[in-house]
Amino acid sequence: MAENPRHPGFPIPGGPVLRAKSWRAEGLLRLLENVLAVGEAPEKLIVYAALGKAARNWPAHAGIVKSLTEIEEDETLIVQSGKPVGILKTHAGAPMVIMANCNIVGQWAKAEVFYDLERKGLICWGGLTAGAWQYIGSQGVIQGTYEIFMRIAARRFGGSLAGRFILTAGLGGMGGAQPLAGRMAGAAILCVDVDEDRARMRREIGFLDEIAPDLDAALALIDAARTEGRALSVGLIGNAAEIYPEIAARGIVPDIVTDQTSAHDLVWGYVPAGYDLPRVRRLREQNPEELIEAGRASIARHVAAMLDFQAKGAEVFDNGNLIRTQAKQGGIENAFDIPIFTEAYLRPLFCRAIGPFRWMALSGEASDIAKIDDLVLEMFPENAIVTNWIRLARAHVPFEGLPARIAWLGHGERTALARAVNRMVAAGELAGPIAFSRDHLDAGAMAHPNIMTEGMRDGSDAIADWPLIDAMTLCASGADLVAVHSGGGGYAGYMTSAGVTVIADGTGAADGRLNRALTNDTALGVIRYADAGYPEALDEARQKAIGHVKLTA
Ligand code: NAD
């Protein structure tokens, strides 16, 4: 275990000593410890996205830890909404953990039902990667954010963001990646957050360059960086619903505008304009209805300013926080004139099942990640997205918690890399096993009609069969952990997703799991988009001979 200056009570796991009976169980235990070590409020089990939790409550957490230390190779731990409910006899090729988090039947899947069940201690929202113990800190979304910025650069700004101004908000668990991604993309980026502590923390860990004392100073810093074509990230403490309209009123039009406040959750996340943090914290317990009403009105102003920037020529997009949905409910009829990032920029990648794959060094040794970086560069020299990213990430992205790396790899590439790493573990070339996982926001793994599957070519946006099929496929493939999550808070009724983790412990059994699970996971992603009629997916399916059925356009 290593010290964790950010959260002293939550040390970072590592080292050669096992507490569990196998590396598979020990690996999953370390991942659970890691999501808390890098989480936003681990004392409340909160990892990110306002209320995304690692376990339902502390007794449930203790039960999971005990189960993972005692579980045998031929058993499977069942976790229901963050609570361990049993260990069943399965077989050595079966998953070691399967979990379902926050799934509520259709007519009841609403924010108020979720809050009620959560208050009664019956349910827990796992976010995407929090409840499935796959979160790796802000690094988890950083390449996605960087790729979005670079696609906008290619489409609108001649391939470069030097001298360009990005305006955004939210410096939390996921939003905290924005200043670093913006700087890596070469832009001058201004990030607004109401919570000074969050901004300070992002500066301390090297994700944010500086915090401006007020809007005038922030704009002056951005202006100077723009003029010099210098990359810079600036934080500003304030409410985005006040700052965005103020910037618009001054006649300033940023080049790119987005937002990553926790707008999806009007009780535990978004802070309405005119409310300070202590008042919001009190109202969360005493009068959540007031917060919902004030939050919606505030988001309406916030999004109206974003639409104003869009009308004046800025590239404006929704970064996956449901802000348009809330704004529409708050009376902004044309909120959906703002596009969602997946459809606008990333869908061609998802069609080829290229998405946010990641790996974590269970030893805690950064040198393991450095060796895998070298391997990636050697294995995929023609893949410009990945080689460019690995070189940038090495230079700019600090590790949080267990050393980890994310890289957008696709079908075949993920399997080849993971199996090669497993051979390195077997040969003793790494200090310990490596866990492979991915974000739930991946090709075959998510139905979310306002984020991942908005505007699908065949209209299949709201069909949640795909993540369920994905999870079942992953169980059939013997992945070590398989999770099915649905939305909580404002996301209730909006999404279903599947998650997977496989531990490369150097054994032949791990080689089989990695081969089957990672190959089938991405194959299903390509099949999902091919089924919807995307030419890129049909092409990928043909080129890589994916699936036994004949896919038609
Ligand atoms: P978080 O709760 O950790 O952080 C949210 C931040 O927003 C906090 O720092 C909070 O102080 C700030 N904030 C709230 N209201 C504000 C306001 N009115 N003005 C300025 N700042 C305000 O959440 P997170 O993990 O960073 O996630 C942010 C959002 O992004 C969530 O809705 C989450 O679901 C979504 N998300 C999107 C993706 C993606 O792939 N695009 C990935 C993960 C999360």
TrEMBL record:
- EC class of the enzyme, as a word: lyase
Where does the Urocanase Rossmann-like domain start and stop, copy by copy?
Answer: 137-345
Where do the Urocanase C-terminal domain residues begin and end? 348-542
Pfam families per UniProt: Urocanase, Urocanase_C, Urocanase_N
Q: Which reaction does it catalyse?
A: 4-imidazolone-5-propanoate = trans-urocanate + H2O
Where does the secretion signal sit in this chain? none
Q: Which cofactor does it need?
A: NAD(+)
For molecular function, the Gene Ontology terms on record are: urocanate hydratase activity
Urocanase N-terminal domain span = 18-133
Any note on cofactor binding? Binds 1 NAD(+) per subunit.
Check the record and name the InterPro entries matching this protein: Urocanase, Urocanase-like, Urocanase_C, Urocanase_central_sf, Urocanase_N, Urocanase_Rossmann-like, Urocanase_sf
Identify the metabolic or biological route this protein is part of.
Answer: Amino-acid degradation; L-histidine degradation into L-glutamate; N-formimidoyl-L-glutamate from L-histidine: step 2/3
Q: Which UniProt keywords apply?
A: Cytoplasm, Histidine metabolism, Lyase, NAD
Cellular component GO terms held in the UniProt record: cytoplasm
**UniProt main location, coarse:** cytoplasm
Enzyme Commission code:
4.2.1.49
Q: Spell out the subcellular localization from the entry.
A: Cytoplasm
Might you name a Gene Ontology BP term for this protein?
A: L-histidine catabolic process to glutamate and formamide
**Which sites bind NAD(+)?**
173-175, 193, 198, 239-240, 260-264, 270-271, 489
> Could you say which protein family the record assigns here?
Belongs to the urocanase family.
Q: Which NCBIfam families match?
A: hutU (TIGR01228), PRK05414.1 (NF003820)
UniProt function note = Catalyzes the conversion of urocanate to 4-imidazolone-5-propionate.
Protein name in the entry:
Urocanate hydratase
Annotated gene? hutU_2
